[in-house]
Every structure is written in structure tokens, then in C-alpha cells.
Task: structure prediction
Amino acid sequence: MTHLYETQKAMRARRRSALQKGLVAILDVGTSKIACMILQFDSSVQSEAQDGLTAMASHGAFRVIGVATTRSRGVKYGEVSTMEETERAIRTAVQAAQKMANTRVDYVIACLGGAEPRSYGVAGSVHLENGSVMDCDIGRVLASCDVPDYGPGREAVHAMPVNFALDHRSGLTDPRGQIGNRLSVDMHLLTINTAAIENLLKCIKRCDLELAGFASSAYVSGISSLVEDEQELGGACIDLGGGATGVSVFLKKHMIYGDSVRMGGDLVTSDISLGLQVSLSVAERIKSFHGGVMATGMDDRDMIELGGDTGDYDRDRRQISRSELIGVMRPRVEEILEGARECLDAAGFDHLPGQRIVLTGGGSQIPGIEGLASRILGQQVRLGKPLRIQGLPQAATGPAFSSCVGLALYAAHPQDECWDFDLPVAGIGSQPLKRAMRWFKDNW
Result:
């Protein structure tokens, strides 16, 4: 039995037991903020998922009983750069959320924005021995997928069956019990940088927490921001974070592509700081209160006092027009959106039937970004907020909390992945998939 299979099974079991006990923490480790939410589940509500294979039961109703955010430290480009600072920030957020919930949690499900995600579409097929599809055949066909050698230093985090075909009938979500001769599957595999997840894992373990699940931020942002039609017909979620911009593409309610652009809102703040010769804190304030990307005639007359605390009276009283500020911000925002456009082109987004694009994340709150994005991306673009979940305070309902809310939905209603099924030992042993998740072996 491969290490991948055992460790992912163990993580799934750990998550299941945590949810049955009724408490789990959600941790979104971002470049600008670290957010923690504590979810309380009603263990008596064990509803099955609506469609698909439902190997992983849905855990029904939950409510948020504790929320806390803290300024992120030690994280750059969505990846941990300074262990001690990140550990301290995680501990601060988790303890504050526990205090609000008046309880203690042992298990945490985390997501990370950077880590250079890469997508692979893999396929496999098997001949049916009994003439109809049985549970063991699902495991056999998943194990038959020919996984590419994605090189050292990278590991798989998601391996989702997105489509089954039986003989010549494609588009099946659950083929079990159906009659046919040959079963085929298309699977989406997402790999990330091993070092990034190892570093996060160490920070979480130092905080006396157990990791019960891990997801890509790009994926969970899409879950919370795209409405059902967009997930079904083809939609993309662009999550404009502080250090990285996540891009995910959905079709038939499954993620079929995930990537990230190594740029975010922090670079815009840095440009303002350098361009206007002000501190980063002043640049962040100016961006939040006066920023924009589409200038009008009025902006030439709209003056902004820069402020500052240098002690030089004349320097601290400087003023600029809003159009000057827009002139500093717009080129960087355009560059980020161009990077997202390249990701969508690589995914073949133009060939999907829906082609709707949703902007979310803290960076999507810049005024005028919707119009600029529709010019660059050339599609139907809208601004997206996460779905409302029970018990979530008003302060945590904005687009900056898309990945956090998505991670809560992912915890409660997990999609089937390769490791939820009983794969034949010989099958997974013969595939390169056996290398995946090897980094867990030092941590459990």
C-alpha cells in the first residue's frame, strides 16, 4: 500500500472523526491576513451529498461559533517565509477564535494561496469483469490513471474524478450499477510545491494542532464565490489576494484547472509607497480609502492629503490628485489581470460553454476593477462575495473571506477524491501516483 493512500485515508478519517465530534477549525493562511473560523456541527444531521459518488458523506448543518483574524506575518507570495512569525500569527488567530467560541479545538483544516499549483488532466480505463459497474471497479479505474512524472519537490493535493464514461456514454457522475463493458474516467490532479506545505505543516504542529485536511485556496474560493450555474456551465474564479492571485476554472460542478499568479494587492501598495515616497502603512491607507483604476475628469480636482509621521511639516502635508494615484495603481492591477488571462488561456477557458468570470478576494474591492477586468479578460465579469453561512458575523462576509468560507463548505461537503475509494494495491503500486504526499511520513 502506498504512503499517499494511507496518509490521505488517515487525514480523511481524522476529518470525519473531528466533524462527528462536532468541532473543527478552519485556517486560511494568507499574505495579508490569517483567518480562523471554528465550526460547530450538528452530529445528528448526516445528509448524503446531492449528486456524484458520495463516497464521502456530507456532514450536514453547521454554524460558525468563533471567528478571528490577525495581520499576517512571515508569509510572502502566499507561502511561509519566516516560520516563527507565521507560527505566532496562527497561534494568535486560533486562540482568539477559541476564546470567542469558548471552546478548544484539536483539528484544523487549512488552505494556502501560493505554492505554485499546477493542473494535470489524466485519464484511465478498465474492462468490466461482471458486465456492470461495481464499487471495486471505481477503485480499479482510478488506479489505472496514467499520472505524469511531475518532478521532484512537488506533490499532489487534489485528485478528483470529474467525469466517468461507460462504453460510449460520457458525462456520468455515478456509473455504479450501470451495465457496460468498458469504464473510463477523467481525473483532475493538482500538484503544489512540497516545501510550501511542509513549512505550513510544521507551523500548525508547533501550535499543538492536528492537520485534518488541506486544500488549495484557488479551489475553495471558487466553491464559495461561483453560483451553481457558473460551476455547472463553466466559470472561473479569480481570487485577488495580498501576495498571490488564485485562478480556478469549474465545469460540471468540478474544478478542472487551478493556478496562481505570483502577484497581489501587496505589490500595488508597494508601488504607491515607492511612487509617492510614503511609508507602506500610509500607502495601504491611501489605497483603501482613495484607490481606483478608472480615472474620470473629476479625479483631477479630487485632492488627497498624503499625511505621514516623518516630523517634516511640509512633507507630511503634501497633496496629490486622485488621478495621480490611479496612474500609479492601474499598471500593476493590469499586470495582475494579464497574468490571470494567461492562466485562463492555458486552461482553454474560451472553449467552455459558460465563460463567466467572478472576481473575489480583498483586491477585488478596488473601485473600477470590474470594468478594467472585462476589458482585459474580454468576458462576462462580476464581483463575487462568498455564500452566506450560518453564524458568520457581518465583518466576515466580504470578498476577502471567500477562501475561508469556501474552506468551511469544503469541510462540510467534501467532494469525492481518489483516496476516498478502495484502490487495488497492485494498481496504485504500479502508478507514479504512489510518490504523492510522501512528505506526510515525517509528520505523523
Summary: The chain has 13 helices and 18 strands. The longest strand covers residues 154-166. The radius of gyration is 23 Å. Residues 322-346 form the longest helix (25 residues).
